[in-house]
Write a structure and sequence with these properties.
single chain; 431 residues; alpha+beta; Chitinase A, domain 3; 3 domains; 14 helices; 46% helix
Length: 431
């Protein structure tokens, strides 16, 4: 067997693999041994028919397809491995038979490969830097949220309902005088201001008193899931049974100890400030890194293979499926509800997937260009920190680690060093 590689279009290579007559004959024999039990010929027990008899009975090419598959599948991986210093395959090959005779076989395959991205510039650029600060007011907001999470409902009888109240209502909706599915309910509890209903509904319930009836008009959004209701004006007849307001607990040392595990209000505020500052720093760094990659991406030339985009889409769709699963919803049911095909659902991720691929190529290219590496000492330090975080010895923690975890740690270290390098070598400006 011998092979040759030539560059093809759209980030692919054309792989040509030649097999001589002996290799071809061996593959046919393998195909015969694997498949002979499928065929029957009068005078022979099934699976015992000689190869030449089957070829006479069913035709000489009876085992050709299986033999070709054997040749390609047994040799393709080795060829790709031998060429890994020249290219990286990023998708399944598209094989075809170029020549076939008793003297041998030639198979060609178009293989999608990782493209060589050309970066116009990644140093000396003016790039937006994001920074976020945390104030005492932000801490106060968190304290209020803590109160609201621990608030108790109290029945209200002496005033109309307001935002943040929970009301018990009957409602009956109609479009053009006709009631529609899902538009009617009795004794429904609704928190006003929660956004649980379509825009305008909750705002018009505000101000109703116990026992009051009111007709409200709303318009379904053009993006509403039910096709028949998109953009339609509806009238809802509302009857209000009950109003419940929120009674916030008093902020005391005892309250924060019970609700947040802090001994005093001051301790809660200090811990909250520290948490918010770390979140702000991370948000600023994440957005700055994204800003850097976006600025570099504007200077690149690259032809992204469809195979890389499709693989990214696979991951994005899987993430969406997991999120739905956590909500108790199956992806197929979700698509049926939206009257959407899997193909159109995947297309929604296409632009993001392409951007993800380009961003990844940019990071890999600059790491290689600048010779950025993760040293063993840096990897050991990260492993030690992770072991400490789960209260294990380094030796014990290492025993439970998968080899891919070490690869991930090394990659994360290199990416961190890369962005430090890019921040140091560009003019970072705040706006």
């Amino acid at each position: 067997m011998k092979h040759a590689v030539e560059t093809a279009e759209k980030s692919t290579v054309k792989l040509t693999i030649e097999f001589d007559g002996t290799e071809w004959a061996e593959a046919i024999n393998k195909a015969y041994l694997q498949n002979k039990s499928k065929y029957a010929v009068n005078g022979f027990r099934k699976g015992k028919v000689p190869k030449h008899v089957l070829e006479m009975y069913y035709g000489k090419g009876i085992f050709y397809d299986d033999a070709l598959n054997i040749l390609f599948s047994e040799n393709y991986g080795g060829v790709i491995e031998s060429e890994q210093s020249n290219f990286t395959a990023v998708g399944d090959p598209t094989p075809s038979v170029e020549k076939l005779s008793d003297e041998g076989v030639t198979i060609t395959a178009i293989v999608p490969v990782k493209p060589d991205i050309k970066i116009g510039s990644y140093k000396g650029m003016k790039i937006r830097k994001y920074e976020y600060t945390v104030s005492d007011a932000d801490v106060a907001v968190e304290l209020t949220k803590l109160q609201e999470r621990n608030a108790r409902k109290i029945e209200v009888t002496d005033r109309p309902c307001k935002l943040t109240d929970t009301v018990t209502i009957d409602f009956s909706g109609s479009v053009d005088g006709e009631k529609f599915d899902g538009g009617t309910a009795e004794d429904y509890e609704l928190e006003l201001g929660s956004g649980a209903f379509i825009p305008g509904f909750e705002d018009q319930v505000v101000g109703m008193a116990i026992g009051e009836d009111r007709d409200i008009k709303v318009t379904f959004p053009e993006t509403y899931q039910a096709e028949a209701l998109k953009g339609k004006e509806a009238t809802f007849a509302i009857h209000l049974h009950k109003i419940q307001g929120k009674e916030l607990p008093e902020v005391t040392d005892e309250f924060v100890k019970e609700a947040a595990g802090c001994e005093t209000i001051d301790e809660y505020k200090a811990k909250t400030l520290d948490r918010l500052q770390k979140q702000a720093e991370k948000r600023g760094m994440d957005e700055t890194e994204n800003s850097i990659v976006n600025a570099i991406a504007e200077t690149v030339e690259v032809e992204v293979p469809d195979a890389m985009v499709e693989k990214q889409i696979d991951g994005l769709v899987q993430n969406a499926e997991y999120r739905l699963m956590y909500q108790g919803v199956k992806l197929e049911d979700y698509l049926t509800f939206l009257n959407k095909s899997m193909e159109s659902f995947r297309d929604e991720f296409r632009e993001q997937a392409k951007k993800n691929v380009i961003d990844q190529l940019i990071v890999e290219k600059i790491i290689k260009e600048e010779g950025i590496v993760a040293t063993q000492e840096e990897i050991d330090e990260r492993v030690a920190a992770q072991a400490e975080s789960v209260e294990k010895s380094v030796e014990e923690y290492r025993k439970g680690m998968d080899p891919k975890q070490f690869e991930y740690i090394a990659s994360d270290i290199m990416v961190t060093k890369l962005f430090r390098f890019l921040i140091d070598n560009n003019e970072m400006v705040t706006e």
